[in-house]
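From the methods appendix. Each design record in this collection lists the discretized structure first, followed by the designed amino acid sequence. Records were kept in a plain field format so they could be parsed without special tools. The example shown here is representative of the layout used throughout.

RECORD:
C-ALPHA CELLS (512 positions):
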C-alpha cells in the first residue's frame, strides 16, 4: 500500500502498478486477493476487467495469450464518494494499493475454479452426508473430455467423466456421499481433512473441518455443546505495512491472542487474509467475518441508494465464495453500527440475511448494533450483538459511570423479552476504553491511563460473564490502529488507542 511511503500518508486517488512476467501462454487466470478499492486491470494495454471492493478476492480469465513476455498493469483507486464502501467517516485508515497477493495461473484443459464442500452431520455427529459443488472451466477452444474426481481424506466421493465445449464454464454438484466415523473440528481438536478435486490437467487442494454451530434455547452450541465466546476484535493492520500484512505478523498476532485465552476473533470490519483464516482453522480459533459497512458514515440517504445495496450484496457473495470451506468461520456479519433504528435498513438486512442463510453454509447470521434499545433488525439475527462503550463515551439517559453497564443490561433484558428475542443469545461485540501506552496513574478514575482501561475491562468482563443471557464477549480491541479520524479528540496520535496492545504489539496493563 502506498500510504507508508514518505509524503503519501494522506494521498487519496489513483496509483498505477506495472509488472512484466513470462508465460507459456494459452488461457490465464489473474487472481487478486485485495486491491484498494476500485481496481482496473490491463494486459499488454488491453483492459481485461474492473472490480469494486477492497477486501474480497476477484479473478479475470484471458484466452489466447501468446507465449513470451507480457505486461500487466493495475490501477488502484481508493477515492471515496457517496457510494463508497467504506464511507468517508470510518474508524480505520483507508489505505490505497494492492494489499494482498496477486497471481497469474496458467490453465490447461478442464480446470477447477472453485470447490465448495457442503455437508450435513448426523444427529450423533458421527457421520456426514457430503456434496461437492465444482465450478469447472474448459480453458481450451476445443471440446475437451476429462475425468473429474473429488477425494476427502481417504474417501473418494466422486469420479466421473465430463465433456465441456470450448471456453465453457459449468457448475457440477456431485451426488451425496456418506462418510462414516468422522473426527469433528472443535476448538480443542481442530481436525482437518484434505480435499483434492482433480481433472486430467488440474487440481484444487483445500482443507475442511466437520462441525456444527447453532443456537438453541438461548445458548450457542458448537457440536451440540454450549460454548461461551471469549473474543477480541482485530484489525489486520500495522503502522509499517498498513493492510499489506505479512504472514509472520499474522502468526505473532494469533500467538498473542491465544496467550490471552481467547477462543474467537472478530475480523473487524472486513474479510481477513485467507492465510490468516487458514491459521485459525489449524489452531481451532473461531472467527466472525463481515463486510466493510461501518456505521455512522452511511446516511439514511445512502441506505436508499441501489448502488450501495448492490455493492454490499456483491461483497457478501464474494466473501461466501472465497471463505466457504473454512470451519473456523462460524459467524457472517452483515454490517456494523449502521442506522438500524431507521426504516431504510430493514430491507437491506432482510435481503442480505436471507442470502447468507441460504448460501453461506452452517453459520450464524448477525449484525453489530450500537443502539440496542432502538434496533429494528435484530429479529433477522441468530445472535444479538451489541457495541456500547459505557465508561468511555457518554450516552443520553446515562450518567457516564461504570454503573451504567448494570442499568443497560437490565433495560435490554426487558426489551429482549418484550420483542420475543429471549431465545437469541446476546454477544457484547464491542466495549472498552482507550489508553496511552506508558501513561500510568495512582488514581483509578484518570482516563487514558493503562489502569483505567484495565479496570474497565475487568469490571465489564466479570459483569458480562455472570449475566445469564450474555453468551460471549469481543473486547475492543486487540491493538491500536491508525484511523482516518485525524481531528477527533478521542483519536490521539491519529490512532484509535483502545488496543490492549499498542500498534507495535507491546502489551498494556489490560493485556495481562
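DESIGN:
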Amino acid at each position: 500500500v502506498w500510504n507508508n511511503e514518505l509524503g503519501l500518508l494522506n494521498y487519496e486517488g489513483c496509483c498505477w502498478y506495472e509488472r512484466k512476467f513470462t508465460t507459456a501462454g494459452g488461457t490465464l487466470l489473474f487472481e487478486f486477493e485485495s486491491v484498494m478499492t476500485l481496481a482496473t486491470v490491463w494486459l499488454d494495454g488491453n483492459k481485461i476487467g474492473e472490480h469494486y471492493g477492497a477486501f474480497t478476492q476477484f479473478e479475470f480469465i484471458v484466452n489466447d495469450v501468446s507465449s513470451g513476455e507480457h505486461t500487466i498493469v493495475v490501477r488502484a483507486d481508493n477515492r471515496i464518494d457517496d457510494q463508497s464502501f467504506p464511507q468517508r467517516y470510518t474508524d480505520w485508515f483507508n489505505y490505497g494499493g494492492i494489499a494482498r497477493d496477486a497471481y497469474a495461473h496458467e490453465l490447461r484443459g478442464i480446470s477447477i475454479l472453485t470447490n465448495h464442500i457442503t455437508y450435513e452431520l448426523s444427529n450423533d455427529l458421527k457421520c456426514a452426508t457430503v456434496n461437492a459443488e465444482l465450478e469447472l472451466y474448459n480453458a481450451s477452444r476445443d471440446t475437451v473430455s476429462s475425468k473429474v474426481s473429488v477425494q476427502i481424506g481417504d474417501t473418494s466421493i466422486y469420479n466421473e467423466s465430463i465433456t465441456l465445449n470450448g471456453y465453457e464454464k459449468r457448475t457440477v454438484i456431485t451426488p451425496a456421499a456418506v462418510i462414516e466415523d468422522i473426527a469433528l473440528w472443535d476448538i480443542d481438536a481442530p481436525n482437518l481433512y484434505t480435499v483434492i478435486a482433480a481433472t486430467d490437467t488440474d487440481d484444487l487442494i483445500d482443507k475442511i473441518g466437520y462441525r456444527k454451530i447453532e443456537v438453541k434455547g438461548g445458548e450457542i452450541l458448537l457440536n451440540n455443546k454450549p460454548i461461551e465466546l471469549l473474543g477480541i476484535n482485530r484489525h489486520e493492520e500495522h503502522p509499517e505495512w498498513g493492510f499489506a500484512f505479512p504472514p509472520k505478523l499474522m502468526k505473532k498476532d494469533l500467538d498473542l491472542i491465544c496467550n490471552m485465552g481467547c477462543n474467537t476473533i472478530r475480523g473487524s470490519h472486513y474479510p481477513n487474509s485467507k492465510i490468516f483464516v487458514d491459521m485459525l482453522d489449524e489452531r481451532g480459533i473461531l472467527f466472525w467475518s463481515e463486510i466493510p459497512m461501518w456505521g455512522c458514515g452511511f446516511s439514511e440517504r445512502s441506505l436508499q441508494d441501489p448502488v450501495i445495496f448492490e455493492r454490499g450484496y456483491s461483497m457478501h457473495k464474494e466473501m461466501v465464495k472465497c471463505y466457504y470451506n473454512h470451519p473456523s468461520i462460524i459467524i457472517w456479519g452483515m454490517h456494523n453500527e449502521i442506522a438500524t433504528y431507521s426504516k431504510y435498513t430493514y430491507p437491506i438486512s432482510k435481503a442480505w440475511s436471507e442470502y447468507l442463510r441460504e448460501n453461506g453454509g452452517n453459520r450464524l447470521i448477525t449484525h453489530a448494533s450500537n443502539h440496542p434499545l432502538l434496533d429494528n433488525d435484530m429479529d433477522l439475527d441468530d445472535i444479538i450483538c451489541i457495541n456500547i462503550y459505557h465508561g468511555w463515551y457518554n450516552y443520553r439517559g446515562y450518567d457516564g459511570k461504570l454503573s451504567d453497564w448494570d442499568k443497560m443490561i437490565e433495560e435490554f433484558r426487558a426489551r429482549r423479552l418484550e420483542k420475543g428475542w429471549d431465545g437469541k443469545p446476546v454477544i457484547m461485540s464491542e466495549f472498552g476504553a482507550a489508553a496511552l501506552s506508558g501513561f500510568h496513574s495512582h488514581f483509578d478514575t484518570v482516563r487514558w491511563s493503562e489502569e483505567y482501561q484495565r479496570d474497565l475491562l475487568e469490571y465489564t468482563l466479570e459483569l458480562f460473564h455472570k449475566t445469564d443471557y450474555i453468551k460471549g464477549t469481543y473486547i475492543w480491541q486487540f491493538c491500536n490502529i491508525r484511523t482516518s479520524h485525524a481531528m477527533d479528540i478521542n483519536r490521539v496520535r491519529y490512532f484509535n488507542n483502545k488496543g490492549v496492545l499498542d500498534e507495535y504489539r507491546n502489551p498494556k496493563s489490560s493485556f495481562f
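APPENDIX NOTE: The first helix runs from residue 247 to 259.
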